[in-house]
Amino acid sequence: MEKADQRSPDGLTGPFPRLVFLGTPDFAVPTLEELAKRGADVALVVTQPDRPKGRGKKPAPPPVKAAAQRLGLPVYQPERIRHPEAVERLLSSGAECLVLVAYGQLLPQALLEGCPLGALNVHPSLLPKYRGAAPIQRALMNGDEETGVSIMLMDEGMDTGPVLAVEKVPIGPEDTAGTLHEKLSVLGADLMCRTLVQWKAGRCRPVPQDDASASMAPPIRKEETRVDWSRPALEVANRIRALDPWPGAYTVHQGKRLKLFHARPSRLNLSGRPGEVLGDCEGGLLVAAGDGRAVCIGRLQLEGKKALDAHDFLRGHAVPAGDVLH
């Protein structure tokens, strides 16, 4: 592959370190693609094994594997990265550093210490805030007004390593987990590329995290996906946004699960019992929350059916005013 101009947006030029890339889901693809576009020397792409997917349960490649194959990069899919054979394969690649983006397995100390420039990770939060598996969702649930990405030098802890670079973005009122996922994956790709060049050149200073101000972002639990209409409207809307598009917040109407998307607190002066349907408006279905305000739901999905915009949904499914969602 012909090497591209390795010029970063801040004017720095210089070589990338030879690297091994580790990642699995869609979130990791922009970083791999940007590294290849800018001419980085990617010795190997490591990703999770193919897993059964869909109704036919046929093995499907993870998104990073598909991207690596499009780019003509070698792919390695060990079942366990801690296995001695896997460790040896990575260390024998001649890589100066490892680059991780949502790989999905913890690295052994032998790999963290085996490359001269260590292992760099893209984390979608402003560390030390939201360490863990669900930083995007937790930021939305908590009503944060900004988030961002951190480039971290990995250690053995859970997102506890020193930080090399940070970039912030505002969280808009219409943002969902899906829109933030897209924004942060692109932002993380650019920031990782710029940081790698500076790190190799000795221009980055690792900044230890302040453990006293750290917070955790544990995985979303099944019970968190059900809407509690007794909560304030803003809190209800934030939870729905945090689970949009996956796994989807749900409520129950006439004994069936109803997933909810595109939520926001209504500006209309309406109130009712928590969960009571108040009617529809230009933005969607209005449902009363527990603080005397309402939530506007812009998109709905009945179990076993496709998600539809509220107006299309309501033309085919009766959700009359006065019904109560549970």
Automatic annotation (TrEMBL):
The entry assigns this protein to a family as follows:
Belongs to the Fmt family.
Catalyzed reactions: L-methionyl-tRNA(fMet) + (6R)-10-formyltetrahydrofolate = N-formyl-L-methionyl-tRNA(fMet) + (6S)-5,6,7,8-tetrahydrofolate + H(+)
Describe the task this protein carries out: Attaches a formyl group to the free amino group of methionyl-tRNA(fMet). The formyl group appears to play a dual role in the initiator identity of N-formylmethionyl-tRNA by promoting its recognition by IF2 and preventing the misappropriation of this tRNA by the elongation apparatus.
Classification via PANTHER family:
METHIONYL-TRNA FORMYLTRANSFERASE (PTHR11138), METHIONYL-TRNA FORMYLTRANSFERASE, MITOCHONDRIAL (PTHR11138:SF5)
Q: Which GO terms describe its molecular function?
A: methionyl-tRNA formyltransferase activity
A Pfam family for this UniProt protein? Answer: Formyl_trans_N
Q: Does the keyword Ligase apply?
A: no
| Assigned keywords, A-Z | Protein biosynthesis, Transferase
Q: Which positions bind (6S)-5,6,7,8-tetrahydrofolate?
A: S125, L126, L127, P128
Formyl transferase C-terminal domain location is 220-317
Database matches in CDD domains? FMT_core_Met-tRNA-FMT_N, Met_tRNA_FMT_C
Query: Record's superkingdom?
Result: Bacteria
Organism name: Desulfacinum infernum DSM 9756
Q: What is its EC number?
A: 2.1.2.9
What name does the UniProt record give this protein? Methionyl-tRNA formyltransferase
Q: Please state what class of enzyme this protein is.
A: transferase
GO cellular component terms, A-Z: cytosol
Q: Which parts of the sequence belong to the Formyl transferase N-terminal domain?
A: 18-195
